[in-house]
Design brief:
The structure is a homodimer. Chain A is α+β, with helices and mostly antiparallel strands. Chain A has helices at 32-42, 61-67, 108-126, 137-140, 154-159, 197-211, 257-261, 284-287, 292-299, 336-340, 381-394, 424-427; strands at 28-31, 54-56, 76-77, 94-102, 147-152, 188-194, 215-224, 273-282, 350-351, 354-357, 370-378, 402-412. Chain A has one domain (94-426). Helices cover 24% and strands 18% of the residues of chain A. Chains A, B: It is an enzyme of class 1 (oxidoreductase). Chains A, B: Its cofactor is heme b. Chains A, B: Residues 7-31 have a biased composition (Low complexity).
Chain lengths: 428, 428
């Protein structure tokens, strides 16, 4: 078994060397002044260490100034390019997936007008500049590596009179699904992501206004990862079940990476990709009743290190043939890791999951409204995502505590140059 | 007019020198190793500057390691002390206000049992250790300056058989209010705050479990401020209307600070304070229709700098006597700043507001579900908060675009020593 990936909350697994969380990095720009000034002072900011090995960190006015690393508010992610931004970069800490339903009278010409506006507004916002109609330029000034990524649902491509890729349709119904309309489908997706939730909120608002003449809001799903700066960048994050989540992903440095992510068929989607978004509710109440050995058995990995139950380190290759003293597989046949392990070199996806933890619904019995916004990018949903998902849907011990309640598939068209617009290959 | 403060979304105003956003700092502790190691490498992380003055920031595996400042995940805020933590420190980036309704059979003895458990769990979580019943110690390991602050509503004090402070009751009804039960009242408040939303979610979950045998969840309100590290620490934040929000606050270095914040009456509340929480919906749809001069007129401050309309810098003292060429006041009589300006040295509060931007309600006409969790601490609600609030309720131009939809008042009891528990002065 070679490379592995998976498609649901835990996503541990793999026989690959450790890829860092980050993806390609060419897009990130930072104005130099702030970094230089702050960088030079950091070395002098260490307080006096004590016998206990603890440092007192003063956050009063003066010491805080000395200690602060360079603020990342001004950091920008380039919008224009062969591919859209917000896909292969290191994921931002906060994301909003926003879906729209096209108005009835939004015809092909209107779609092109809308996409020119959306492109212009998104390119400005990600560059720290206000859209033309925005009277709050101050809120746009610190994008904090903001990205805005556009996706088309089946309805958009149909309205545009284009040929939809074979995979651009709702996923087949799975027995485990309890899908809700308020988290599913959509004609147009705008994915806004930033390391600062204030920058994200403003950009979300601005994009809502850009689209409003052409489409109605269908749903917004907000998610978060660990805050930027909380951990070393290379560390794999944990989801809210406490599992190390995201051990394996295709790495931009791999030869196979481009073929796994980008469509290369000469169509209007050339240079684009697909996004699968699944909202997976995690039942914290019943998960809380499960002890650690049972949790690890269900996943196939250790909770502390994320290592396969047959290994000692997170990125150790799992040994699916290993048996216990009583002759049972150490990694159970229905463990999440084994089910999610890809069966071919093509069955790999770029996972970009976000946690959600919304306010409990009024009157709900459960005190939690918690889960995962599972998001993955792949050149072909049917070849890469679907086989993994089918195995997980048919038998994954984690399904005991998880329920898919939302599902959507979007075509992410290629990027564009500064004189073009997102969707031009479909609409021009 | 001396010192000033206010009690609603914009909160510009003041004649005071610029206080930093941060409060007291004695509580913050950080394990030394990570800071030292990372701090030493930051100076070498500056990339090559280009002619355009931009630095390319690489976030690939290797460069990212070099650039990273010390991760703040391990940072702790001391739990035990004369006062509770989470009040006067620099506000964390993320907060969850969680309210509970006591179960009918939770008597005085049960309250004491609950508070011992809550205290033990909160002290562990804020120290990066899992509560006794927590099977996910890994999620507790990186508190990111987590604080957990406990408050008692009128129902709690009554159940305990204690004497409630005169101010511990719902605020009087204001004509502008459209309060909803799902955001109002409560017998017990647990305020969880952290610079990392993942740490916050886990702590919220753990505290829900601590309290569950004794009380039912009433509501959860989540809020955010700018991400830690996005801006210089001393910079005043903007709210989602784009206003500089929080220019004036009592500063811990002032002589008056302790008297403004801490109850000093020899009662069980000695060393405690009060929390007023108001959920203020901000109508983004109608605000979007207002041009900049009208916005500035409503607030009394400039949008770009936050300076009073009679000044040029954020912390300039406003001149309420200045007139325009036509004889009208430059700062309108009903501007938010003028209405919020305190009329006495006692009328001051410590504001700790958070933004909220939740998913739009299904079927709602508005594409926004946005506003402010206005939170303030003061020794006496009636003397300090109420006069400001009454002036704002009676006439504040900002009320055109804002609606209070939730309201709660809590007694924040004093802190405790490591062998005590929060609420011991009431329950022992």
């Amino acid at each position: 078994m070679a490379a592995t990936d998976q498609a649901s909350p835990a996503e541990p697994n793999s026989a690959e060397p450790a890829p860092a969380q980050s993806g390609t990095s060419r897009r990130r720009l930072l104005t130099g002044g702030a970094l230089t000034a702050a960088g030079l002072t950091v070395g002098g900011a260490l307080g006096a260490s004590t016998a206990s090995g603890l440092l007192t960190r003063n956050r009063g006015a003066e010491p805080a100034q000395q200690e602060s690393p360079a603020p990342f508010g001004e950091e920008r992610t380039a919008f224009y390019g062969t591919h859209q931004a917000g896909i292969t970069e290191a994921p931002a800490a906060h994301a909003a997936f926003i879906a729209f339903t096209l108005k009835k009278d939004t015809d092909r010409d209107a779609l092109a007008r809308m996409m020119r506006i959306v492109t212009d507004d998104a390119s400005r916002l990600t560059d720290g500049r206000a859209p033309l109609t925005d009277v709050e330029p101050e809120l746009a000034a610190d994008p904090s590596a903001l990205t805005i990524t556009i996706g088309f649902g089946p309805g958009f491509v149909e309205r545009a009179g284009g040929a939809a890729p074979a995979w651009l349709k709702p996923l087949p119904a799975f027995e485990i699904d309890q899908l809700q309309d308020e988290f599913s489908g959509g004609d147009l997706l705008i994915l806004v992501a930033s390391d600062d939730p204030v920058a994200l909120s403003h950009a979300q608002r601005a994009m809502l206004k850009s689209v409003r003449p052409f489409a109605d809001l269908a749903w917004v799903q907000r998610g978060f990862r660990s805050a930027r700066g909380a951990h070393d960048d290379g560390r794999t994050q944990r989801n809210l079940f406490g599992q190390v989540d995201g051990t394996v992903n295709p790495h931009p440095d791999e030869d196979a990476f481009d073929d796994l992510i980008w469509v290369k068929d000469g169509s209007w989607m050339n240079g684009g990709t697909s996004l699968v978004l699944r909202r997976i509710a995690m039942n914290m109440e019943t998960w809380d009743e499960v002890d650690r050995p049972s949790r690890e058995f269900s996943i196939g990995r250790r909770l502390d290190t994320g290592a396969p139950l047959t290994g000692t380190k997170e990125h150790d290759a799992p040994d699916y043939h290993a048996k216990t003293a009583t002759g049972m597989p150490v990694i159970d046949d229905f463990s999440h890791m084994r089910r999610a392990t890809s069966r071919s070199a093509r069955e790999r996806i770029l996972r970009r999951p976000y946690n959600y933890d919304d306010a409990p619904l009024p009157g709900a019995e459960s005190g939690s409204n918690t889960g995962l916004l599972f998001a993955s990018y792949q050149a072909d949903v049917l070849e890469q995502f679907l086989p993994i998902q089918q195995r997980l849907a048919e038998g994954d011990l984690l399904n005991t505590w998880t329920t898919p309640i939302g599902s959507a598939v979007f075509a992410i068209p290629p990027g564009c140059a500064a004189d073009g617009f997102i969707g031009e290959t479909l609409l021009s």
